[in-house]
Amino acid sequence: MITFHVQTHRREELVDITAHIRRLAGEQGWRHGALLVYCPHTTGAITVNEGADPDVARDITANMNKLVPRHGDYRHAEGNSDAHIKSGMFGCGQMLIVEDGDIMLGTWQKVYFCEFDGPRQRTVWVQFMAGS
């Protein structure tokens, strides 16, 4: 398993980690298999979505706030219940295909670390599983 850190700068943001993951795949010599990209935080997540237009990431965070507002009918005492709910909606990990030493993504896709309770320094775990 490989660990790397992501520094976030706002309470909620999507941070593009695609280039870092691609670099890891090349440096590690991973050729064919699957790559698990995992967030070990209960107020963060990993997602794959459009990366060509930065407004998509902005639209995601803005509209998640409408779906799950920061202040609501929450009992969790830390004041970040919305972040836990958003994290659960996105999920803690993504499985990516690795072929010929690169992660396989669609034309417009990027891999994002989703911050819902920042700014913070976050950790991402990456585990490669070799194919046959």
From TrEMBL:
Superkingdom, natural source: Bacteria
Cited InterPro entries: UPF0047_YjbQ-like, YjbQ-like_sf
Similarity comment: family membership: Belongs to the UPF0047 family.
Protein name, per record: Secondary thiamine-phosphate synthase enzyme
Organism per entry: Oleidesulfovibrio alaskensis (strain ATCC BAA-1058 / DSM 17464 / G20)
